[in-house]
Amino acid sequence: MISCAVQAQPFLLKSTSGTKPFQLNIYYGTGGKGAYVQYRGQQGVIPLKLKKQTLQDKTSKLKVTYIWDEVVEGKVTGTYKLSQQTNQISAASYSRNKDHKLFKLEQAKDKEDYSGKVSYLLNGVIISFSRGMDEQLTFGYPDKKKKIAHLPGFDSQDPQRRGTIDDYNFDGYDDVAFSIPDAGMGVYRTFTIYLYNPVSKRFELLAEPDAPKAKCSGFCDVTLDKKNKLLLTACRGGANWWNNVYKYTAHNHLTWLSAKKAEN
User: Fold this and answer.
1) Per-residue pLDDT for the chain (264 aa), expressed as one digit of tens each?
2) 48: CATH
3) Are residue 165 and residue 99 in the same domain, yes or no?
4) Which domain does 181 fall in, by range?
5) Number of domains in the chain
6) Are 168 and 95 in a shared domain?
7) Omega into 209 within 30° of 0, i.e. cis?
8) Residue 89 DSSP SS3
9) Is residue 4 part of a domain?
10) Which end of the chain has the lower number of beta carbons within 10 A, N or C?
């Protein structure tokens, strides 16, 4: 899947057609996943299911277009579409299924201060965190219960936290990870990963395996080998770069397999 970083959340959109003007906030994460909308003046949120994503390179600036199905009580009730280039939204619209009415939308200036807050709707759970110095992480579950955790703080001149949505344990359910620059030279990123448990319907912190032979401390520059169902990390130790390989055994238990010096 094509990936595009989401640099501003949420985006405020306003209608430019129709007799009754309205405004909505739209939230989404990695590759358009974790998307939902919330209409101004309403408490509830509406889940969006990614239908299509396309990427176009224009004058060295990536332009990504998303199309989502609006899902209400398990039924597709409409379609949202927009294009994003950096923090600018264009060609936004909402098509309502019941009468095939098309509402054109445009980006509006938002007077509310979200202070770098980002929010996803993933597996029915609203996940909120900050890109900046605020370390609080909140999981808002469908049963109205909340879990508040804390993410690692910054020890870097580049305090920028990123959220990434992916299936980190290859079980068919999307998980969420948060990364910050390493505390040294900032040449790689360290990850905190929460796995979704479909039985408990909760997100659980992925523990780092006890692996004395591993060359990286913590989850560094995490990538996934989905074909072989392996979790890979990479870090710098001394003058060398190292790669570590992990796999899952029963009950989502992550185990270390090997480490080797990265080829130049």
Assistant:
1) 444 455 567 999 999 987 789 999 999 998 999 999 999 999 899 999 999 999 987 666 789 999 999 999 999 999 999 999 988 999 999 999 999 999 999 999 887 777 688 999 999 999 999 988 899 999 999 999 999 999 998 876 667 899 999 999 999 999 999 999 887 666 889 999 999 999 999 999 999 998 888 888 889 999 999 999 999 999 877 678 889 999 999 888 999 999 888 875
2) 2.40.160
3) no
4) 158-261
5) 2
6) no
7) no
8) strand
9) no
10) C
DSSP state of 252: G
CB 15 within 8 A of CB 23: yes
Is 119 within the bounds of a domain?
no
User: 172, exposed or middle or buried, with CB in 10 Å at 0-12, 13-18, 19+?
Assistant: exposed
Query: Are residues 245 and 232 in contact, defined by beta-carbon separation less than 8 angstroms?
Result: yes
Residues β-bridged to residue 190:
180, 220
Residue 50 within a domain: yes
DSSP code string of 194-220:
EEEETTTTEEEEPPPP--TT-SSSSEE
Which amino acid would we find at residue 204? E
Show which of 76, 107, 138 is a domain's final residue.
107
Token pair belonging to 154? 């910054």
Is residue 86 in a domain? yes
| Residue with tokens 């690692």, as numbered in its chain | 152
Task: Give the integer Cα–Cα distance in Å for 49 and 52.
Answer: 9
Of 107, 123, 145, the position where a domain reaches its end is 107
